[in-house]
Every structure is written in structure tokens, then in C-alpha cells.
């Protein structure tokens, strides 16, 4: 395989930038910070976990409703970067704002967390769609997987700095509280995200799109309506989206709720942070490995492997009791977390018509986001009804089984390497 071009590297580097948000805000520091704030306000552990699940559901619903519309409008030449930049800035400012919210204001924390999630996920809609502009179809598995690998590697640096500050504050080595240390972590995330997005802003451009026309919003709705009417023309694409809807639901739910789940099991904050760091380190090479194995065994085969690993994860989670059990669970997740997401992105990108990439990635996002509503709600409701988070995680097995069954009927996309991308 040829060396990566400047555009490919700049595009992949956004995974490096944005993954700091994913680990520190979505998965690690913010959930623990929020749980502490809720507990201080007298909210029970199961209720605070449920409220976090409901918040994630609201954020994903908002973005899911907007994504196809925004994506269709952004297919006009010159608009993709503008939409990407808007959501990136929204996420960046909201993340920095978390550092200035009083630690006892748990509801306000959830409100601004919603804005950060919309900003991060919204920018990712357009970032994902840019893969059709920066590389060729025969390189997509490798480029997409390496992006996820860079994300895991890059996220460990601000994460190490953040947990070091938090642990030193916990042990009174630093002259401030754990609360202040967590807020510093939020600022570190914002700075990291902002600085390392610069290559994406400078070097990545929209190559494919449709020409501007009068009444772009009205015409965008017409194009969206026509696409929905002509779904039969894109049978393989929408069949894949249906499979993706189910299996990515389980993946996303496990990622976003894992820290809260571990906290409910009685695992200490320090242990959770160390486990999550180790997960990032292990996930990086496995994400890249998935991309290389996909070139040998096909992307679809490796998606089967990833889904099967997650089925094992859900079953094992039901019997979780000790910190060692959580370690084993986390390492299982690490082997397939990045690979399944990277290959799903590449698989879908090969199926979409390039000039309408944003519109179709809007559908990709809406399927993923609506799935992300269902999973956290399932966890939230089951946690409250049974008082046992393990039962909720185990119930996710059915989603993976449905997903892998539908995926079986999706044809392997034909690879087109006829066009080139300049360095």
C-alpha cells in the first residue's frame, strides 16, 4: 500500500483530536464527576445512572433528527466544511464550559453535556462523510481503521495527564481538590480537541458534491424525499444500515455506560480510570489490525468477528462481580471496539454515491443515533425496574444477534480504485 497522503493523514488526525473527548467526557472523567455531583445532591446510584442514560438518549435524538436534513444540504459544494466547523466549535465551547459549572449543579452538568454530545457527534457526521473525499475505495478499510487507531493512541496522552492530576489531587499531592482536578481535565480535553483539529481544517476539502442552486433548503428536502422514495435502488445500502442499527446500538451503549456500570459495581474511581486507560492502549493496535485483516478476509468477515466478541462481552457482563472481572471485560471490548466502528464506516462509504455522501452519511448517523437512543433507554429502564445494571447489559445480546443476522444478507461492496487522490 502506498504512503498516506497529506489529506488522508489530516483526516485521520481528527480521530486523534476528537477521541480525547470520547474518553474523558463520554466515558471516563465526566460520568464519575457527574455521579459524584448527583450523589452529593441525594440522588441514588441507580437513578443517577438512569438520568445519564436519558440525557444521552435526548442528545442523540436531537442529532438523529437533524442529521439527514443537514447532510442533504451539506452535499452542495463548499458546505460540508462549514457544517463540520460549526458543530466542532459548538462541542469545543460546551466542553470548556463544563469546567466552570458548580460541581453541585448536576442538572446543569447534564444540560451542557448534551450540548457537547451534539457538537462532537455532529462534527463526526461530516468528518465521516469526508472519507469519500480524501481516499479511494480500495484504501478505505486501512485509512478508516488507522484513523481509529490514531484516535485510541492520541486519546491516551490527555487521558494520562488528566488521571495523573486527579489521582495526585486525591492523594493530596496537589494543592487542590479532586473536583478542581476533574475540571482541569475538561479544559485539557477542549485544548487538545481544538489544537489537533487544525490539520483537518487546513488540508481537507470537499471534492464531491452537487452544484449550488436556488432555494437550496427547499431543494434539499426534495432530494431527501426522492431518496426515501427510491430506497429500492439502494437495497444493499439500507439493508446494511438496518444491521448497523442493531449491532452499533450495543457497541455505543457499552461505551457510554461502562463507567457508570463499573461505579455501580463498587469499583473505585481510580481503578476505573486505570482500566479505561489500558482499554485505549489495547484498542489502538487492534483497530489497525482489523483494517489489515479486512483486506485479507473482507470487511464483512471481520464485522462478524467483532459482533461475536460483543455477544461474549454482554454474556460475561451479567456475571461480573470483581474488579478483575471488569478488567477482563474491558480487554474483550478493547479487541473489537475500534475495529467494528472503523470497518462499519468504511463498508458504508463504499456503498454510497460519492456526490451524495453527506446525505447518505446523514442516514448512517440517524440509524446509529436512533440505535443509541434505544440502548441507553433499555439500560436506564431495566436498571430502575430491576435495580440491577447487569441485567440491562445482558439484554443487549439480542441486538447483536439481530444485527449479525441481517448483516448476513448484505452483499460485499465492489471496490473501485479507478480515481486517485493527490497528495
UniProtKB/TrEMBL annotation:
Residues 236-423 form the Major facilitator superfamily (MFS) profile domain. It is a multi-pass membrane protein. The chain crosses the membrane at residues 12-34, 54-76, 83-101, 107-127, 148-168, 180-201, 236-260, 272-290, 302-320, 326-348, 360-383, 389-410. GO terms for molecular function: transmembrane transporter activity. Keywords: Membrane, Transmembrane, Transmembrane helix, Transport. PROSITE patterns: MFS. Gene3D superfamilies: MFS general substrate transporter like domains. GO terms for cellular component: plasma membrane. Its main location: membrane. The keyword Transmembrane applies. It is found in: Cell membrane. InterPro entries: Atg22-like, ATG22/LtaA_families, MFS_dom, MFS_trans_sf. This is MFS transporter.
Amino acid at each position: 500500500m502506498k504512503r498516506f497522503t497529506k489529506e488522508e493523514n489530516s483526516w485521520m488526525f481528527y480521530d486523534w483530536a476528537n477521541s480525547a473527548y470520547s474518553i474523558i467526557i463520554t466515558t471516563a472523567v465526566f460520568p464519575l464527576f457527574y455521579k459524584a455531583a448527583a450523589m452529593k445532591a441525594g440522588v441514588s446510584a441507580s437513578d443517577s445512572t438512569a438520568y445519564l442514560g436519558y440525557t444521552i438518549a435526548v442528545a442523540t435524538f436531537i442529532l438523529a433528527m437533524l442529521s439527514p436534513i443537514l447532510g442533504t444540504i451539506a452535499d452542495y459544494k463548499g458546505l460540508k466544511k462549514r457544517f463540520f466547523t460549526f458543530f466542532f466549535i459548538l462541542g469545543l465551547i460546551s466542553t470548556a464550559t463544563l469546567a466552570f459549572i458548580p460541581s453541585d449543579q448536576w442538572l446543569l452538568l447534564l444540560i451542557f453535556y448534551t450540548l457537547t454530545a451534539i457538537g462532537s457527534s455532529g462534527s463526526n457526521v461530516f468528518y465521516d462523510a469526508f472519507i469519500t473525499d480524501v481516499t479511494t475505495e480500495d484504501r478505505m478499510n486501512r485509512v478508516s481503521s488507522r484513523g481509529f487507531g490514531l484516535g485510541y493512541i492520541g486519546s491516551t496522552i490527555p487521558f494520562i495527564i488528566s488521571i495523573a492530576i486527579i489521582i495526585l489531587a486525591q492523594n493530596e499531592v496537589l494543592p487542590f481538590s479532586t473536583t478542581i482536578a476533574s475540571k482541569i481535565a475538561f479544559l485539557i480535553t477542549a485544548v487538545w480537541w481544538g489544537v489537533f483539529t487544525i490539520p483537518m481544517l487546513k488540508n481537507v476539502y470537499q471534492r464531491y458534491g452537487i452544484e449550488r442552486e436556488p432555494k437550496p433548503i427547499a431543494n434539499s428536502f426534495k432530494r431527501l424525499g426522492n431518496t426515501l422514495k427510491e430506497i429500492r435502488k439502494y437495497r444493499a445500502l439500507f439493508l446494511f444500515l438496518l444491521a448497523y442499527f442493531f449491532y452499533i446500538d450495543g457497541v455505543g451503549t457499552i461505551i457510554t455506560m461502562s463507567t457508570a456500570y463499573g461505579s455501580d459495581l463498587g469499583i473505585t474511581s481510580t481503578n476505573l480510570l486505570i482500566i479505561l486507560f489500558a482499554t485505549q492502549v489495547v484498542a489502538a493496535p487492534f483497530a489497525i489490525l482489523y483494517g489489515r485483516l479486512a483486506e485479507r478476509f473482507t470487511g464483512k468477515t471481520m464485522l462478524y468477528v467483532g459482533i461475536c466478541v460483543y455477544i461474549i462481552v454482554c454474556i460475561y457482563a451479567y456475571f461480573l462481580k470483581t474488579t478483575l472481572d471488569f478488567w477482563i471485560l474491558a480487554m474483550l471490548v478493547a479487541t473489537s471496539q475500534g475495529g467494528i466502528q472503523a470497518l462499519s464506516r468504511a463498508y458504508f462509504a463504499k456503498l454510497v454515491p460519492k456526490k451524495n455522501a453527506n446525505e447518505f452519511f446523514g442516514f448512517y448517523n440517524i440509524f446509529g443515533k436512533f440505535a443509541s437512543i434505544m440502548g441507553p433507554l433499555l439500560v436506564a429502564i431495566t436498571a430502575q425496574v430491576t435495580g440491577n445494571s447487569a441485567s440491562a447489559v445482558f439484554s443487549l445480546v439480542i441486538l447483536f444477534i439481530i444485527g449479525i443476522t441481517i448483516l448476513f444478507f448484505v452483499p460485499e461492496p465492489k471496490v473501485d480504485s479507478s480515481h486517485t487522490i493527490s497528495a
